[in-house]
Design goal:
The protein contains ten helices and four strands. By secondary structure, the protein is mainly alpha-helical.
Length: about 325
């Protein structure tokens, strides 16, 4: 015998008056009690997402890459060597950690999206692309040669071109995921959804800037100029690196703010502030590079842009910290 349907009061949760309710993809401003079309059982944004068939390999290889980056820290401490330059332990450290975090984040995003034909193999290809790029960078450092803009031998040239092709592929996949994330509304809190969308969009922008860094360096190298410099002292990789990890820190802000007991509307404002701050810092990095100036050789204009960006990032951190302290005081 089929079971009788549950009363609507047991199936859906009421939301407060004046709340925004998401129904069938539309947003309605409610001025009376209504029932939000979400399951009564709360959904957590990060519960076992790595068990998704599309995410598990991205998560596993991402963890290995992060571990590889951390392992190279004591290697650098023991063997020594410069932090900057074409041949440095900085690259295995930073690319390992950065590539691993990116892989983990892409797996998390994928687990929130509805299934599409080819998702499993595309996610696996993305995981291996990021992993192989880190392996090639590590290989070149252990060989004692530069990994980027190195065409001293046919092998070096092939490896550099392979890294470029892998990153182009990851960029296209990230763009596809961003489009899907904006077209579909996953079962996520509004603040976490905003953080995921903004972070993924900034990741795509960062990847495109990284591709430009490679093209610019190749052109510079062909005419005998320094491939890692623009103008007198501009650093082309600076804008690329500024926003690449927004896909981690924006969701982290939303998650910590929720743990601190901040309501959803305020959490959305905090994530929006952090997003605006990240964009302003990225604009600052682009201006500094375009002007041919070093990272912190500021002008009055760029200093003002940087200050505004830092303020936008600091505000959610301060508000969340205050809420956590206040919550602990009340719990005593």
């Amino acid at each position: 015998m089929p079971q009788a349907p549950k009363p609507i009061s047991e199936t859906f949760q009421p939301v407060r008056p004046n709340a925004r309710v998401f129904m069938c993809g539309s947003v309605f401003d409610q001025r009376v009690h209504f029932y939000c079309m979400q399951p009564a059982r709360p959904l957590t944004d990060a519960s076992h997402w790595w068990l998704d068939r599309r995410a598990w390999l991205l998560a596993a290889l991402g963890a290995i890459m992060v571990a590889s980056g951390l392992v190279h820290v004591p290697v650098w401490a023991v063997l020594g060597g410069p932090w900057e330059g074409p041949v440095t332990w900085r690259k295995p450290i930073l690319f390992g950690i950065s590539g691993g975090l990116t892989s983990l984040s892409l797996g998390w995003i994928w687990s929130k999206l509805p299934w599409r034909w080819g998702d499993a193999w595309l996610a696996a290809a993305t995981a291996w692309a990021l992993f192989i790029e880190v392996v090639l960078i590590d290989l070149q450092r252990w060989r004692g040669v530069g990994s980027h803009f190195n065409r001293d031998t046919p092998l070096d040239s092939v490896l550099f071109d392979a890294m470029g092709a892998l990153i182009v592929g990851v960029t296209l996949v990230s763009l596809d995921l961003a489009v899907r994330l904006f077209r579909h509304r996953p079962l996520m809190a509004a603040d976490m959804l905003l953080a995921a969308r903004a972070g993924l969009a900034l990741l795509v922008v960062s990847c495109l800037l990284g591709i430009w860094v490679g093209i610019h360096g190749e052109m510079q190298q062909r005419i005998g100029l320094e491939p890692t410099r623009l103008g007198a002292a501009g650093v082309p990789k600076f804008p690329h690196g500024v926003a690449i990890h927004a896909i981690q820190w924006l969701p982290a802000i939303a998650w910590v703010a929720r743990r601190a007991g901040i309501d959803e509307r305020m959490r959305c404002r905090l994530v929006a502030s952090a997003t605006a701050g990240t964009l302003l810092v990225a604009v600052y990095a682009v201006l500094q590079t375009a002007l041919g100036r070093a990272r912190f050789d500021t002008t009055p204009l760029t200093a003002a842009v940087l200050a505004a960006g830092v303020a936008g990032l600091a505000m959610p951190v301060a508000v969340t910290a205050w809420a956590m302290v206040a919550g602990r005081r009340q719990a005593r």
